Amino acid sequence: MRPEYTSGGSTEIHQLPAVGLRAALLAGELSAREVTAHFLSRVEQQNPLLGAFVTVTAERALSDAAAADAGYVRSSGTDGLPFLHGMPVAFKDLTDVEGVATTHGSAALDHKPAPTDGAMPAVLKAAGVISLGKTQVPEFGLTAYSENRIAPPSRNPYAPARSSGGSSGGSAAAVAAGLVPFAPGTDGGGSIRIPAAACGLVGLKPGRGVVSAGESSGDPARLVVAGPIARNAADAALMMDALTSGSSGYLGAVGEAPPPLRIGLTLDSPWSATFPFETEPEALAALQQGTSMLEHAGHVVSEAGIRYDNRYPGAFTTAWTAGVGTARISPHREALLTPLARTFRRRAQQRSPAKLNEALAFLRQFERDTITQYGAWDLMLMPSLAQTPRPVGWFTGAEWTGDADDDYRKQCQFAPWSSMVNVCGLPAITLPVHWTGGAHGAGLPMGIQLVGPAGSELLLLQVAAQLGF
Question: Annotated catalytic residue: which of 131, 191, 248, 269?
């Protein structure tokens, strides 16, 4: 369904799906060192154009790969190997990896090596992955684009003048360009689904509490979760098994056909009243294509009218920006923040604890009301994005001269169907059903988003696989 981004015409290691690469590593057909060296070479060739990686830890990766190969020799069959033995990945630069600086995309912070692994890297390293480095993010993960003041912007592999999205934009660009076979992302307001949609990938945001390693301490509304960015549903299922310690059975069941589903189609958004937006023709074309595919697969798609409380934008923004208000930044370095981060930080610090608590209480009620409305259908269907991937610099203006409120408005109009899913704690998946250049993929990817009830991660992956992803 999706065209490959490759630098040549031959089939190579990076063109293998993650599931196939894992099988080759477990069978001894490929060594961890061979695979790691291949992907590091890809990073060296492609990253100067794409800006997907902020930090490349090549020497450490090759050392870890040698250790993995030594473990393979000592093991007796695949039962003695870690679940993701020798699989290369990269971690977005918001999460700590031992011995590597975590920049949080900010020039206002000291970039010191992390003393220990964060929870998600610890889980995946225990599963046997080889980390190639850290990927580009927006400052503090706040935006739907991965541009900051410390490194080149992350660019879309299919159109380098365009953004790869955010905040997992570097990771999505790396997967789409074949710099890693798949990647873990985190999503607090669309940060897996937005870049996956922009880069023509499958992006799954699990429900709240499903992947505990992705949760964040500076997240009073419990918005942030970890999930996979992958080229297909099976690869996403493999990553989900690893993120849940290999015992969930996503990969084993992803190929099973889902039952016929009642799917509610909606363009309603909780941002519409505050930031009116138009859904571009290419987004509507993706929605039409997705609807046709779902109906052809035996599902029933019908119009769904969803009513959202117009107090949502203010409450979400209050909860979403609380963390930047408490970030440890020296006063004399605050001038180094981007305009949006600096503005949100000032407002968060001026806001009383009572106002934050009021916003959190509203969001809990919003969650209950929205889940009740969604409950009339098995899944909800909407575009992934309202617009095609935006040009690099479009949100901020040249040389970061744009107004912070204008920047934020543009983001909410670009991705108006993302954040409310985090507030509701529901799982959602984005699928690249449409390309602006036609069936052969000469153009930009556009996707649909499917939102399911609590516990429907496997169902969403099964629907994705059923549609050919």
Answer: 191
Q: Looking at residue 399, which CATH number applies to its domain?
A: 3.90.1300.10
Residue-number span of the structural domain to which 406 is assigned: 13-466
| pLDDT on residue 468 | 98
Q: Which of 131, 146, 163, 167 is catalytic?
A: 167
Active site residue 217: no
Assess whether 92 carries a catalytic annotation: yes
* Residue 289 placed within a domain: yes
Active-site hit among 92, 125, 205, 410: 92
**Sign (positive or negative) of CA dihedral 140, 143, 146, 148:** negative
Question: How far apart are the C-alpha atoms of 326 and 118, rounded to whole Å?
Answer: 19
Residue 3 lies in a domain: no
Interatomic CA distance for residues 20 and 16, integer angstroms? 6
Q: What pLDDT digit, counting tens, does each position of 243-284 carry?
A: 998 778 999 999 999 999 999 999 999 999 999 999 999 999
pLDDT confidence band for 5 (50 / 70 / 90): very low
How many domains in the chain? 1
Our answer to whether residue 355 is catalytic in this structure is no
Residue 1 in any domain: the answer is no
- For residue 7, is it within any domain? no
Distance CA 180, CA 177 (A): 8
